[in-house]
From TrEMBL:
Residues 33-201 form the Helicase ATP-binding domain. This is DNA helicase RecQ. GO terms for biological process: DNA recombination; DNA repair; DNA replication; SOS response. The keyword Zinc applies. It comes from Parvibaculum lavamentivorans (strain DS-1 / DSM 13023 / NCIMB 13966). One of its GO terms (molecular function) is metal ion binding. Keywords: ATP-binding, DNA damage, DNA recombination, DNA repair, DNA-binding, Helicase, Hydrolase, Isomerase, Metal-binding, Nucleotide-binding, Zinc. Residues 225-371 form the Helicase C-terminal domain.
């Protein structure tokens, strides 16, 4: 209600130009906005940076009443409200950080029809008192941001979101708009269903980010791998993600000692330091920012040239969201990640020891495995990533490490048969370490105790070293020929597709893991 009753409501194009100072709509924005202004429900599935915010901010100004925006992130709310106010939009945020007085002022402004946009947290919106209050306020629309949070299949489930399903019954005439940048097909179906948006129009665009080059390497002295990567990007700004605060600080210190300007950023640092480092990063050619994933949400810097991961993210969605912060200006950018088996164990442990209910843990494990599949794939990374979002891509993108430097392959048929046979003959009860001991003929205490040295498979795999066998098992798992039973200490099990391999009816091509320079040097020195 930027207008009063006697003034006509503005048109979306007018608002775009006069309030937001932008010349034209992008992609499907105009369509989405027209649909919502006309009172339709919508589900908007667009990648990060596509411009989802305008899809509700403009209808908010082109319809009578206040638009209620649900957002889980208080920091993000604050930034958006600030930006809107600077453009002359009457916006406010209602969340737990307000004093009672501030909250009362906002309620009064709402009743008086003096607000265009109100940001609220999902728990606030879900409370009975607030719903009854809203019933007396003229409403333009509901926008549900980060809508994937309503789904247990999503990577960021928030139980507070579940209550939002009630909005349809309570406010049948108010258009509702759900937005997300990250949802696999299962999560999408689930969020549509739970938000009762079955009749909504769905707007989606390809999730492909063609200007981002994906590179995923095995860790082998990760810090120096990172340094080499950064040296190739001197003077460009980028983000290095680490899992823990401690590692953020260590990495930033180490890089600085190596002559690379790097600043730490995590939630444990003083607000003033965080702001200072963020500002330095936001300047045109800022330093490298080493951060936990606390950094990045709502950061709008178009020329981030690279995003590097020194630790494995929790899922493809998380990886995609984090790497998606690179190259919003459409120029060539890099997404680089180093990962190792220790990351996998750490992630598994985080899931096992986490607070989620068992059902959610199972989803988390599946999501981690899907990411590992992308890490292990010998074919186009982009194709594998997009497949996860339900998009088919022909592959051979020419802009990922697998396409640019195709892996050397070897005939792993015999090795795979031996590995599968070792699993089968030991009753599918053991992890890779023990199985490799059997294959390599190591008479460990455990091997002797279980009399596995009597098996015909004992010692048949002496031709491959420990690392090569690990690679065989990893690749078989990544292809779904075997699976890892996390409820049984990582025991390996045969899947249906193991049968033709075991029976020698299907050849298996395996990727040769690149030998690092360090290992080459070590081998040459030996
Ligand atoms: P998302 O929520 O989809 O990640 P945002 O709404 O934060 O994306 O928008 C990302 C950036 O794109 C913002 O800087 C925004 O101002 C800009 N933007 C959005 N729509 C347009 C447009 N039509 N023309 C130019 N810039 C736009
Ligand atoms: Zn590719």
């Amino acid at each position: 209600p930027i207008n009063t009753a006697d003034k006509p409501l503005p048109h979306p194009e007018e608002v775009l130009k006069s309030i937001f100072g932008l010349p034209s709509f992008r992609g499907e924005q105009a369509e989405i906005i027209r649909h919502v202004v006309d009172g339709g429900d919508a589900v908007v599935l667009l990648p990060t940076g596509a411009g989802k915010s305008l899809c509700y901010q403009i209808p908010a100004l082109c319809r009578e009443g206040v638009a209620v925006v649900v957002s889980p992130l208080i920091a993000l709310m604050r930034d958006q409200v600030e930006a809107l106010r600077q453009s002359g939009v009457r916006a406010a945020a209602l969340n737990s950080t307000l004093t009672q007085e501030e909250a009362r002022d906002i309620r009064e402004a709402l009743t008086a029809g003096e607000l265009d946009l109100l940001y609220v947290t999902p728990e606030r919106l879900a409370s009975d008192g607030f719903i009854s209050f809203l019933a007396r306020v003229p409403l333009a629309l509901f926008a549900i941001d980060e809508a994937h949070c309503i789904s247990q299949w999503g990577h960021d489930f928030r139980p507070e979101y579940l209550q939002l399903g009630r909005l349809k019954e309570r406010f049948p005439d108010v258009p509702r708009l759900a937005l997300t940048a990250t949802a696999d097909p299962q999560t999408r179906d689930d969020l549509v269903h739970r938000l009762q948006l079955d009749d909504a129009r769905i707007f989606s665009a390809s999730f492909d980010r063609p200007n981002i080059r994906y590179t995923i390497v095995r860790k082998d002295n990760a810090k120096s791998q990172l340094r080499d990567f950064l040296k190739a990007h001197e003077g460009a700004s980028g983000i290095v993600y680490c899992l823990s605060r401690k590692k953020v600080e260590e990495t930033a210190d180490w890089l600085t000692a190596q002559g690379i300007l790097a600043l730490p950023y995590h939630a444990g640092l003083d607000r003033s330091i965080r702001d200072k480092h963020q500002d330095a990063f936001l300047k045109d050619e800022g330093p490298v920012l080493v951060a936990t994933i606390a950094f990045g949400m709502g950061i709008d810097k178009p020329d981030v040239r690279f995003v590097a991961h020194l630790d494995l993210p929790s899922s493809i969605e998380a990886y995609y969201q984090e790497t998606g912060r690179a190259g919003r200006d459409g120029l060539p950018s890099d997404a680089w990640m180093a990962w190792g088996m220790s990351d996998v164990s750490l992630r598994r442990r985080m899931i096992d020891e986490g607070a989620s209910p068992e059902l959610v843990k199972q989803v988390e494990r599946t999501k981690l495995d899907a990411l590992l599949h992308v890490c292990e794939t010998a074919t186009c990374r982009r194709q594998a990533l997009l497949a996860h979002f339900g998009e088919s891509h022909a592959g051979a993108c020419g802009n990922c490490d697998a396409c640019l430097t195709p892996a050397e392959m070897w005939d792993g048929t015999e090795a795979a048969r031996k590995a599968l046979s070792a699993i089968y003959r030991t009753g599918q009860r053991f992890g890779a370490g023990h199985l490799i001991d059997i294959l390599r003929g190591n008479k460990t205490e455990k091997v002797e105790r279980s009399q596995h040295d009597d098996l015909p498979t004992f010692g048949v795999g002496k031709d491959l070293d420990q690392k090569s066998w690990q690679s065989v098992f990893r690749q078989l798992a990544a292809r779904g020929i075997i699976s890892i039973d996390h409820t049984a200490y990582g025991a390996l099990k045969l899947e249906e597709s193991a049968r033709p391999v075991l029976q020698g009816q299907q050849p298996v091509e395996l990727r040769r893991d690149p030998v690092s320079k360090r290992r080459q040097r070590a081998a040459a020195a030996a």
